[in-house]
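Re-running CoA transferase subunit A to confirm reproducibility after the cluster update. Everything else is unchanged from the original entry.
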Amino acid sequence: MAGFNKVVSTYEEALEGLKDNMTLIAGGFGLCGIPEGLIAHIKTMKTTGLTVVSNNCGVDGFGLGLLLEDKQITKMVSSYVGENALFEQQLLNGELEVELTPQGTLAEKMRAGGAGIPAFYTATGYGTPVGEGKESREFNGRQYILEESITGDFAIVKAWKADKYGNCVYRHTAQNFNPMAATAGKITVVEAEEIVEPGELQPSEIHTPGIYVNRVIKGTFEKRIERKVLAK
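Result of re-run:
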């Protein structure tokens, strides 16, 4: 069964094949459940022209925000972009193209892409700028717009535990966009807090089956808090 072992030991191996002008799908929500080490290594690779699909673009100096520093991202497909001043600056300067997408629609775009569904109808966005130029259709007296699904050249996700075959478990809210992102990449790379032997994860607790995963690497995580709010 050695041929099923998907564990790699270096970030170079984990991201082998990532090139300029590719589409990268990244799991996480804010700074929760993001593949910190993989993102940091992409910065050192100096890969440019990237289209990045993610809930947001991190914060200044951390997460996907690192990739803005050297203008490695050309286009962001996101649902929220409010915590990053450099993002705002590049958007207003015309250096960064941004496609804002309703959050549920973005999640379904990833899920549908991973399931081989090219497009789907949703009521979200009908009659707003989101729906402009998109095909619409009425179902049961309600209007819906057609949204195309998303797939990427690479998907990078963060797991709490992964086994050597690539089966993944996400912890609590770190599940967020990771399961959908994991299905939507031609090459999916998992950065895990812990790698366990096959059979240690119960089938009922697995969130992402290893069939979707190409590579697994053990990471170390800062788990930075995006915004700390304390009661008085």
